[in-house]
Amino acid sequence: MRAQRQCPKCAGESLWNVRDMHEHDGKRWAQLGKIEGVTPLETFICAGCGYAAWYSGAAGSLKLHRVFDAHLRCLDCGSDQLHVEQMREWPDDGSLTRVPLGMTIAVCGCGRCEWVRGAGGSGDVPVRDERPCPRCLDDHCQKLFPVYEDGLRVLPVAVVDKVGIGAFELRWCNRCSLCEWFAREIDMLRPDGRHIIYMEGETRTAGPVAGGPYR
User: Do the domain assignments include residue 90?
Assistant: First the structure.
């Protein structure tokens, strides 16, 4: 999606690029700062359907391994040379009412990141997604909206001047574990020319909004 500058879902060419997605009030979402080499993270979001693809800016320095799984391939370039990391659990300090289900992040050398399995916890109730999995075509899929980053805080699409904008919907396949992210409620998203970029074809525009995501 980043290289093609086109949404693989709806073929839309108007995209948002939200950079430094992993930082929020000095904390790192899902403790990604403890996963060496994966950060920094950014997203490319289709302005039309909301489909969101994650990328790691440090992918070129990661140690890649061949993954012997016919279903686990880079969603952009199809490579099976991936860096795979298991996400750490949240600290059990009694302050959180939700904890993430087991998730793994797979990072390709081209930068594309794939989240394997779902997210949520005892306080989250996923629902059946009637659409078949786009990778294995299985119809045992689920979706969750919104996704929580910790405790009761919704994971925002971006944060501008400490105010969260939007929320993510997560869909996943119970068979092949493909996860798909969609950005919702992003009508208030505005470009700032640095952390939030709007791209329409080959044209990039920057607006007057100050600040950036997770700053």
Answer: yes
* Cα angle: 36, vertex 158, 180; to 5 degrees: 70
Q: What contacts 4, CB < 8 A, 6 or more positions away?
A: 76
Determine the Cα–Cα distance for residues 56 and 108; give it in Å rounded to an integer. 9
Residues of the chain with pLDDT below 50 are 22-34, 89-101, 119, 122, 203-215
Total number of domains constituting the chain? 1
Q: Which domain holds residue 145?
A: 14-205
> 4 in a domain, yes or no?
no
Domain membership of residue 3 (yes or no) is no
- CA dist 161 and 148 (Å) reads 20
pTM over 0.85: no
- Between strands 41-46 and 14-19, the pairing is antiparallel
